[in-house]
């Protein structure tokens, strides 16, 4: 879930320049990869999910979905190609990095074969700089080869069955890019961000035999704009920006409700390194929204001013201790095609390296969806993920992961029933890489 929300905003700071290319060295397997192969990996994961559908209530007249547990196996493979490997002018050209990556993750569930899915991720990345100019392009494309039929639920809890939606047949595309010019005391940057979800599932009117069936709609967000930065130090700057954007929300065949909108977003904040050990970025400000489709609008009123915030922080206290935090608050159209929501996503992770081989991390994640009137919903989940990784060799590692998630509503049960649930996920994995 977190993965679906993070890529909405444009990059807040320039991507670092790729290090100078060096001759590839033999890895722990005695294999010397060719220059055009940046990375390759294989992994296998065995795990247990205590609540596969993220709900605590069963629908009447349909198979049970509440607290269904299942063992699962995930097989993963990935490869990254260096598209500049054959360029003799690589070192002195404007283009420093140009890579194409593909990864595949196939997951099989013992207790629910229809939840099996294959996630195919394609990633194009380009980074360049010369003199005062720099740019970056990140364009991941995800195709999920999963079931086209969704599940039946008693109460709709999107934060619980968001994982169910992510396993369905669909395409997700994201793009974030910028072009920046730096002067001694200031910089100017053009940015753009695009996210699109295309759900390729069968659609049914949730009445009669299909009562409780969950339909998902296509939706998207796109914006472009300009940032101006004033450098307080060479590595830290105050930033002001503006975005012009739009959001689309498809509707189901049995309903014309939709919340397409356009927006202007004013942003103020900072970015860079206020201290040598601290990387911090923050942009916040008002969203001035205008919603169309007045005859079938899913929310009250066609003009709203919403709050937007996106920030991240990385503190490296010692070479072995790192604290990472991020937060995003914004408005997006809902995946159910009925309303719009204020989404709040908060992440906190502490990582400690006990040695060169052994590391561990512990996190805290909060995800909230407050629906806009007239829909009465305010759903939240709290997750505590933990990971321990041990490197057997430079290219072979084992990991143990655990995550406890609880879902609840900020409204009384009588107003918003069926929103509470508990999920525990435990897994062991082995990863080999070149």
* Integer tally of domains: 1
The average pLDDT score comes to 91
Shape: globular
User: What fraction strand?
Assistant: over 45%
Number of helices: 2
Q: Give the SSE string.
A: HEEEEEHEEEEEEEEEEEEE
Could you name the CATH class? Mainly Beta
Q: Characterize the main sheet.
A: 18 strands, antiparallel, barrel
Compute the gyration radius: what is it?
23 Å
Given the helix and strand composition, which structural class is it? mainly beta
Strand tally, please?
18
Range of helix content = under 10%
CATH architecture: Beta Barrel
Low-confidence spans: pLDDT under 50, at least 5 residues? 1-23
CATH topology: Porin
End-to-end C-alpha gap: 29 Å
Task: Describe what this molecule looks like in 3D.
This protein is an all-beta fold. The chain has one domain: Beta Barrel (Porin), CATH 2.40.160. Helices cover 2% and strands 58% of the residues. The protein has an 18-stranded antiparallel barrel. Strand 13 and strand 14 form a beta hairpin. The N terminus is likely disordered.
